[in-house]
Structure formats: C-alpha cells, structure tokens
Predict the 3D structure of the following.
Amino acid sequence: MSDLEFEPVIGIDLGTTNSVVATVLDGVPRVIQNRSGQLLTPSIVAVAKNGRRLVGQIAKRQAVTNPDSTVFAAKRLIGRRWGSREVEDARKVLPYDLVAGPEGNDVRIRMGDRVWPVAEISGLILAELKADAEAFFGRQVTRAVVTVPAYFNDGQRQATKDAGRIAGLDVARIINEPTSAALAYGFGKCVEKKVVVFDLGGGTFDVSILDIGQSVYDVVGVGGDTYLGGEDFDRRVMDWLTFSFAKEKGGVDLRRDKMALQRLKDASEKAKCDLSGVAVAGIHLPFLIGGGEGCPALHLEKQLQREKLEELTKDLVDRCIQVVDRTLRDVGVRPSQIDDVILVGGMTRMPSVQKAVRDFFGREPSRGVHPEEVVALGAAIQAHALTHRKGSTEVLLLDVTPQNLGILVVGGYFQTIIPRNTTVPTSQMHVFTTSQDNQTSVRIAVLQGASDKAIENELLGEFVLAGIRPAIRGEVGIEVNFDISADGIVSVSARDMVTGQCQSITVTATSGLTEDELKRIMDENVDELLARKQLVSDFERRREATEKIIGEIEALVPAVTAALARSRFGKDAVNKAQAMVQRVQAAIRAQDGDQLGTLEEQLDRTLQLFKGLSGGAPEERGP
Ligand code: AMP
C-alpha cells in the first residue's frame, strides 16, 4: 500500500540548537527540507521590533541586534521548576529574562512585550516544522512522533507533549533520542548487536545501551546529563575570549554589552565548529564594543588553536566519559562487550570527543549515520510503524525509565517504587501505612531522581488521599499504584484498602500549564498561524512579481548603458538601479516581506524609466 494512502506522519527531533523533521516515503526514511531548503532549522524564536514572531534561520539572523527578544536553547528550560539549580544557572548566562510562572513553580520567558511559557516557545518551533512538512506533502500533517533526551524526567516529557498540542500536532509517541538513533541505525538491516548510542547535542548528553535484534530494540540502560552539551563548550570559548579581551584592553568587560555577548557567542560556536576541521581558527569581531562618545570602538582579533580548545573543554569531555562508564557499570556491561558505538549530535564531530570515545571503548565509533539527522529519521520510522502497524516496518521498542520514581516517606526520605532502567510501559504497586494515630489523610508527594533524600529529587506532583478510616498508626493499608506509559509519562493513584477511598493524578504539574491556559494558547496560535500563512502568501506573490521585474531590468541594462553613454548622469542611473536590484534580492533572501513591499514600487518605476531609455529617449534623471 502506498504511503500517501495514509495521512502523512512525521518524526521530529526537537533539538536544543537545531531541529529536524523527517518522514518515511515509499519505505525510505528521509529528512524534509524546510521552506528555505535547509535540513536543519535553528531552534530559535524571536519577536522582531515590529512585533512579528520569527522562527528558525530568520530568528537566528537578527539575534545580534535583538538579543533581549531572541530565545535560543529553550529545551534547557522546558519542564523545569522555578528555583531549581538548572534554572538558576541558566539565569546567570542567558541574555533573555526568565520569570516564575503564575503558580510560582514553572519557568516563563520574557520575549517582546509578553511573558511566554517555555512549552509555547517550543510549540512555535514545532509549528514551523509542521508547516515545512505540510509544504513538502502539499497537505495537512497532524500526527508526529517527537523525541526527547532519554534523561528527560516526567515534567520535561509532559511539557514537550504540551508543546506539540500548541503546535496543532497529535503527538502519537514521545521517544528517547538515543533509541530513535538506534532505530535509524538498525533500519533495514538484520543485525544482532549490543550497541551504545553516544548523543552529545547542543544542550544535553545522553547515553543508551541497547540490544538490537530481529526488529526488537531493547534498551538495557540509559544515563545522561541534561545540562551538558555544545553550549557549555561555546561558553568556555566565550569566557576565554572575554578574559583575554579584558586583559588586553585594560579591563573592558564584554559581559556588560548584550549585543557584544551575542556576537561573541556566535563567533565562539563558529570557531569551535571550525576547529573540528582545521588546527587554528581566526576570530575577528570588529567594532565589538564602545564607539560612543569618549570611548573608542574596540575590535577583537584572536586565534584559537585546536589544542587550546581541547584544554579549555577537557573536563566536559571527561564528564561525558564518566557518565558512559557509570551507565555501563549500572547494567553490568563492559566496554569490550559493545559491538558498535553510534555517535549522535553535532558535538560528536569534535575530534577530542571522538578520541575519548575511541579510547574508552577501544574501537572506532560507527560512521554509518549522519549525527544531526539520525534522531529525526528514527522518529519518522517509529511514526511510520505506529501508523502502518503491519508489515516490514514493524518494530518493537522496549525503552526504559531513566530515573528512579517514588514517593516522599517519613523523615524526608525517598522511597523508590520503580527503579531506573525498568522497561516501560510498566506499573508497580506498593502498600504504605499511616504514621500517626487516627490519621485521616495522607499526602502523597511523587518524586523522580537518584538521591535517597527526597529534597534532592525532582518533585513531579502531589495529592492528598482523604477519608481514611481513623485507626492506630500502622494499621491502615494504603495501596499506591504507579504507572509509566510508553511515552515515559507518570500517573499515580492511592487507595485505602479498607474503605476503597481512591485518589489519583496524572503528574502534569511541572509543565506549568493548566488545561485552560493550554486551550487559550492553542486558540491564539490558530489565529497567528492563519496570519503567518497570509504573510507567507503575500511574500510569495511579491517575490514572484519583483523577480519578474528584476529579470526585465537586467535584460534592459546593456541597452540603457549604451543609450546613456553620452549622458552626464547615465552611469549613475545604471549604478543606482543595480544597487536597488541588489537590495531587492537581499530582501528576497531574508524573506523580508515588508522591505520587499517598499522596494516593489521603486523597482517598478525604474523599469518604466529603463524601458523609456532603452527606447532611445534619454532622460537625465536617476531612479
Ligand atoms: P545538535 O543538537 O545535534 O544539532 O548539535 C548541535 C551542537 O553541535 C551545537 O553545539 C553545535 O555547535 C555543535 N556542532 C555542530 N557542528 C559541529 C562541528 N563540526 N564541530 C563541533 N561541534 C559542532
């Protein structure tokens, strides 16, 4: 049966730095180009000075001039609690402002003249990818599989699902990025292997150990650090540049100037990427700071050697290897038992990362997959398998829960109910009792994490089981049931075993969005999407019209140049017209509909003038 008899489904790798959308077409997984013809879409959202929302490359391009209202790396914040260590760390380094949500527990971002839930920002990126897929298929796309780092906890998964809903997507499944990469690696092959997926992206590090065989992908262990990625490497370069600059320029602190910082960030990332291919990278940032009254403009000129970059980031690479070591030990697997190591994520292009992996495993990592595309391809394979069910595309994914799940018990301790690395979906039951005489209610606080102390773990949500029969402490049995779905999302229920009194929650608290808030955002986005579609079609109409005029003008240039050869203003007129043509072409490249609109009329006048001139009636007036 042809794929197009089904509604198309897509797989999305919603990355910290870049996102990718893919599909399976006629049995072949492939990445879908975005409407600008690129395979990677920067995970960047902005509100421009004129109030327009921008997503992807177009948002990235204006980041330097609009740092306050350009949001990157939102994935680092999604599903995080306000006040958590990660959020506090992010606040110190991000150029945009973070604020607490209305209930004080989730994180929101100030962008433009509004405060945005993080899930809404990610939703805008997903909506952009959805629109790219729709342009590719020429029809509506509503179903998707979205990937998340294996180490994401319940709150982060739930918030990612919310982002999908905001984008108008039915997220059929959330799957783990390394598992997704393994799916793409094993697709169409008949392999029986134990593999490690080493996934170092822009913001997170993930490692998974899988047994692959006969279309079954059995994850035996996962580990990771959701706060270790390419951005940390970039920051090391930035800090080094800031420090050297201050030393050379009499203490001038670049961190004071947001625009300078943004340029520094871009240049640091670029130098890091360049150094994967060359031994020395030049960093040139003219007019970086100053230039006002009484303070001369200062330029940054620096060379960064690959060795220096490796020295600056050695501890980060070591941290990755420590996580790999711990994950293998956890499940009792030795490095020598691994048949293949799959490198995923742009950061694995860095030679010192590859070397560390090679040294640890004593083997060359696999080169068969494209590190930036493989996760989206795997998600597309899973989306396809979920839709088609039968036939050669059938795959069985046996994923695991990345962190211990449990509840708070007396004394502030954490009681694990479902240990990490348990295959999901799963459900487990545990019987608790009252800790005081005549206690008629218990508070169940659900937590996820690695510590024995409840306070050090992530609180996912809490609820109260009331109406318990009064009795001596320890006499009443309370049955607590934990469920983890195939998406890794948690629900918990508690029941008094005598009265049958029952309470349950799907732990949704950390996404930070109430159902009402979600619905309101979804309604707003429908309006925004319609407006965007209108803008895109206006832009396309203008582009076609202006490109036609440009063609005509360019064809007339030789005749006009000849006709004006004797004129005093001739050369000037042709130069001005050519400059205008270049401006129009730049506006087309930048997809700037507003600019194009203003230039369209002038361009048209130039054409009329040129037509007159080439017809032999000289006129000494420039366009
Ligand atoms: P991903 O999340 O997989 O898109 O990975 C993005 C991260 O990979 C960013 O931090 C990039 O700077 C980094 N990256 C991309 N290409 C390279 C490269 N050639 N060398 C080093 N890092 C890279």
